[in-house]
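Researcher: Next sequence.
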Amino acid sequence: MFPKEEYDSRISKLRKWMESKKVDLSVIRSGANMSYLSGTNAASVLVVPMDGDPFLIAKYAFGDKIAEERSAYEVVSVKPFYGLDRVDDKKISFLIKDEIEKRGIKARRLAFDGTKQEEEELRKAFRKGGRSLPVLSLSQEVLRIRAVKSEREIDVMRKSADISINAFYNVLSEIEPGVTEKEIAGRMELEMRRLGGDCPAFPTIVCFGENSFNAHHIPTERRLKDGDIVLIDFGSSYSMYASDMTRTFVVGKPEKKLEEIWYAVYESQEKAIISLKAGVSAEDPDREARNVLSRMGLLDNFVHSTGHGIGLEVHEPPRLLVGVKDRIEENYAVTVEPGIYIKGWGGIRIEDTLIVRSDGTEVLTKGLIKEIELKGH
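Model: Next structure:
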């Protein structure tokens, strides 16, 4: 997906951390972290020695070919015997040990990203003289590196956002009384694929009327009626990178209560976005959004954070939330999505995907209409 130099740069950042911790070998089993460092999540493991080239181990006919096509690094293929020889955690761990010994790589201190069971098998494989080697947790460090996006990553995320926005406009004319939530969700996902998306970044949320109260509603056979709230939360995955956006509007003329709440959420999002720039605290945008909603007497109905990081996964660090003291860095990708939810009535959420710059933000989803009334109906 990216040139090898992009992955080499990421590995170099990891190795700086390894050097600081005196780690000889990093082993990555996590899909998204493996994708970030190698270009693929089709392998069983990525191995990064402090000295020597990274390599992957993948199952024959169950990922090895895909890994070879997508990864910047060598792929070692493991072939089961007539499907009876399971390539399980234990075997993978001993294969890692065999491979590094073949390559003359010394491993006295390990770093690992994966499950507890996988880590236990790795400890057993590398046990020497009845003693396990020290194993450091790696997952948070890779997430920290991932948080700052390169310009190549940002280009891909722009494309992901554009695919999603165009899909919305292609489906917009079909959002009319009588259609079901399921039908619109299905059409959105089809359009995102048709326009070049790999798949939806997450199951598309379509809510009509009172169903918009459910922040993570699962689309139903509920039919759209004139005057209903329509909330659509969607995003495509393109070259493994996600976009995420939400729009809420009404079919017909909005009632006064809906109009007041919609504009309160709109203003809270605007204030949060204005406050975002490199160097601020992760709690600052959330505080700005909450100040607006508090002034409007709506704060009790805001029940989630103002936003979250996004990239290879839909939800990544940081969280934009009061109490989170992390500093926002340049080229972080985040969402800003305040919302109000009133049981028995409905909900309003407005969400955009943004890139943090030194003096503000670049809104990747700025081409998506942000109006209370659905035009053309």
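Model: The first strand starts at residue 25 and ends at 28. The radius of gyration is 23 Å.
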